[in-house]
Amino acid sequence: MKQKIFEDFDFSKFWDDSKYALKEFVDETPSDELIDSVEKELGYKLPASYIELMKMHNGGIPYNTCFPTEKPTSWAEDHVAITGIFGIGRNKSYSLCGDLGSQFMIEEWGYPADGVYFCDCPSAGHDMILLDYSKCGKDGEPEVVHVDQEGDYEKTFLAKDFETFIRGLVNEEDFE
After folding, report:
1. 36: Cα separation from own chain's centroid
2. CA distance 142 to 129
3. CA-to-CA distance for 61 and 73, rounded, in angstroms?
4. Contact between residue 118 and residue 131 where contact means Cβ atoms under 8 Å apart
């Protein structure tokens, strides 16, 4: 029997609903119609785990903002950091179809059009986190990768899927 999405995961201390997070990232719960229109605009079927999380809390800044890596990245020797997770929508600048969303990163910053950019990083656009559909196709289950704009858009594998990425986020204090 397949495990339920985010089964046994405690979200009670996941989101940091600061004034900044609420203003820039968090949007109202996405309707099925909005999800469909965003998927059509982006050209990709969003992972079920991403949709599930956004229906609980549509975008925001988690308390745990680091993800361990096997190899060094432009951010650190052993991890990447995120600033926030984009919600499903168009209203917030930091939403999938917002003015600083996925398409903006592809069109204005030259990021590869290999999927959906869903997390920004503290580098102010010089690296991003991508739902990478290059191996699975537009309707498949994308891997999560770090893309380094400064390093000729080098990809660093992070997680086999979105849920694994969310479950793997750790606090920055783990790296101090």
Report:
1. 18
2. 12
3. 21
4. yes
Q: Could you report the per-residue pLDDT of 2-61, keeping only the tens digit for each? A: 668 999 999 999 999 999 999 999 999 999 999 999 999 999 999 999 999 999 999 999
Residue carrying structure tokens 């999380």: 53
HEC string for 33-91: HHHHHHHHHHCCCCCHHHHHHHHHCECECECCCEEECCCCCCCCCCEEECCEECECCCC
138-147 CB burial, b ≥16 within 10 A, e <16: eeebbbbbbb
Tokens of 26: 């968090």
Residue with tokens 């290059």: 134
Cα 60 to Cα 104: distance, rounded to the nearest angstrom? 19
Give exposure, 10-28, as e/b (b: 16+ Cβ within 10 Å): eeeebbeeeeebbebbbbe
Beta bridge partner(s), residue 170? 66
Which CA distances in Å does 145 have to 157, 159, 160, 175? 5, 7, 9, 20
Look up tokens 């988690």; give the residue.
62
A 10 A CB-CB count for 78 gives: 14
Q: What is the pTM of this model?
A: 0.95
Fold classification of 19-175 is SMI1/KNR4-like (3.40.1580)
